């Protein structure tokens, strides 16, 4: 990578935005977490000098994202059920001393990929791994986005796959990783250039992010980002809450907004950079702040535990299959003597 980095700037890394890479590494090295940590770090350090990077890792789930978490948990549980069925079929095939097909292995691995979750413990351990090397790394209270936006300075660069970062007016430059699996390339976006290109003010860009689909809320039905842009660009400039209010009072929006969506959560997050913690029963070690409440989230650690157990089951079946193949090979060798 050859991007200009001002002398006093910092690269602020949204670690969990590299989820696909994390999933691949931690699945491949499920039995050696230290190796997984080292490989993940080696990938991230390719984007810049680690001494000039700050690594942010998501902490507890945020209450404002409860619907997003619910949808992700449903997809994860469905994938784990598919993985269980695939493992059972593969195990039965191996037990019957019949050769399994490549598709059987693929079905298991597809299900396990869909059911993967980077656990809080693994995230804490990765932060500890970085800190042990005297690097600046944080397990955030909730979403990493919040801490990054709150600490970002004008000359800093945010490294993230998340396109929502320009909703925070503190972020001036965004690096978005692109390319093939092992490529280390980024597209660099400057806030001022983007605003000039789309002809919006900073507050209108944030308002547009608030009323379009994001992690805090969905958009109003039939009101996609292009339609929202056409409405917001013509509104008188104002602060973000006022722009969202004016947007909601637009005739076309009123007609479509049968659900009464008001975007309170996204306005709060993008303008104040705060979130409330929604703590599942298994989360106890996330930093807390006495001035902010902690709300329960309907979620169960069963998904992660099931993933771990299924990985163990899959390993046992693969080992059983490998042993059977070896025994058959040895038997064939003996019969030829």
Automatic annotation (TrEMBL):
InterPro entries (UniProt xref): PIN-like_dom_sf, XPG/Rad2
EC number assigned by the record: 3.1.-.-
Cofactor needs: Mg(2+)
The UniProt record lists the keyword Hydrolase: yes
GO biological process: one example: DNA repair
Subcellular location(s) of the protein: Nucleus
Superkingdom as given in the UniProt entry: Eukaryota
Gene Ontology molecular function terms on file: 5'-3' DNA exonuclease activity; 5'-flap endonuclease activity; DNA binding; metal ion binding
Keywords: DNA damage, DNA excision, DNA repair, DNA-binding, Excision nuclease, Exonuclease, Hydrolase, Magnesium, Metal-binding, Nuclease, Nucleus
GO CC, any one term: nucleus
Record text on cofactor binding: Binds 2 magnesium ions per subunit. They probably participate in the reaction catalyzed by the enzyme. May bind an additional third magnesium ion after substrate binding.
Function, as annotated: 5'->3' double-stranded DNA exonuclease which may also possess a cryptic 3'->5' double-stranded DNA exonuclease activity. Functions in DNA mismatch repair.
Family: Belongs to the XPG/RAD2 endonuclease family. EXO1 subfamily.
Name this polypeptide is given: Exonuclease 1
